[in-house]
């Protein structure tokens, strides 16, 4: 098993410095880079563990604090386990923070993260992969559309509000995406109803994006997050197979499709 080194790093952006977690194989050799957009709860122990798992598979992984304008992660206090009761209060405090991260700010930040990775010795030359969870799935799609020459693959899991009537909805990035896209949707997710899934699928198909969208039966929004009551171990392992398979196809020629 590959030894992994994880460190806290700081990434300069147009609006100050973002704290972030960097995981990579301990040998220091350049590896394909993966930029991870977290859910609203942000960088925390379970997220670092997930980044380490991707790094063990042979990648350099950057997980930035998406809300760095409000201070270091976590920007609100989090319990060790987030149950349904705690979730409501946490989101009450997070909602104004989330609203401050406009698409314009998020895209500018993404450009900063990509530039930082391009200069990182432990990141291989060439395009990167993106993965996003919950709100991060929409950020990943937007980033792929904004920087098509820098992104080889995009994965998103239990994303919400991905194909709304908003003129800035993430699905509208589809015509500019050149990467392969994989999306794993939660079956029990009011933030992404069937009509949005259909609209998203149509947008990707009409744009000629190589993609696969799957609905995970019985899974709730947040099914990959083991520190929450929404966690689903079976769906999580399916997510890992899909994510690592996508990374193989993007960066390891000859991997099965």
Automatic annotation (TrEMBL):
Pfam families listed in its UniProt record: DLH (PF01738)
Keywords linked to the UniProt accession: Hydrolase
Molecular function terms, GO-annotated: hydrolase activity
Gene3D superfamilies on file: alpha/beta hydrolase (3.40.50.1820)
Keyword Transmembrane assigned: no
Positions of the Dienelactone hydrolase domain: 19-249
Keyword Nuclease attached: no
Superkingdom: Bacteria
InterPro entries linked to this entry: AB_hydrolase_fold, Dienelactn_hydro, Dienelactone_hydrolase-like
PANTHER family: CARBOXYMETHYLENEBUTENOLIDASE HOMOLOG, CARBOXYMETHYLENEBUTENOLIDASE-RELATED
The name this protein goes by in its record: Dienelactone hydrolase family protein
């Amino acid at each position: 098993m590959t030894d992994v080194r994880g460190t806290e790093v700081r990434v300069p952006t147009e609006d100050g410095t973002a704290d972030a977690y960097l995981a990579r194989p301990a040998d220091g050799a350049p590896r394909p880079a993966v930029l991870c957009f977290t859910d609203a709860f942000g960088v925390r122990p379970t997220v670092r563990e997930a980044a380490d798992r991707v790094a063990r598979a042979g990648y350099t992984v950057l997980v930035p604090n998406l809300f760095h304008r409000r201070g270091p992660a976590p920007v609100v206090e989090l319990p060790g386990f987030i149950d349904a009761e705690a979730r409501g209060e946490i989101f009450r405090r997070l909602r104004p923070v989330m609203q401050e991260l406009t698409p314009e700010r998020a895209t500018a930040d993404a450009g900063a993260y990509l530039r930082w990775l391009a200069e990182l010795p432990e990141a291989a030359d060439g395009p990167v992969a993106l993965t996003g969870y919950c709100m991060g799935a929409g950020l990943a799609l937007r980033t792929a559309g904004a920087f098509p020459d820098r992104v080889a693959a995009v994965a998103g899991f239990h994303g919400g509000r991905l194909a709304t009537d908003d003129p800035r909805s993430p699905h509208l990035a589809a015509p500019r995406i050149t990467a392969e896209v994989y999306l794993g949707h939660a079956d029990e997710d009011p933030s992404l109803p069937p009509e949005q899934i259909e609209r998203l699928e149509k947008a990707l198909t009409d744009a000629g994006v190589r993609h696969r969208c799957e609905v995970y039966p019985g899974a709730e929004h947040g099914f990959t997050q083991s520190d929450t009551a929404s966690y689903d171990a079976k769906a999580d392992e399916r997510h890992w197979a899909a994510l690592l398979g996508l990374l193989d196809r993007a960066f390891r020629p000859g991997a099965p499709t």
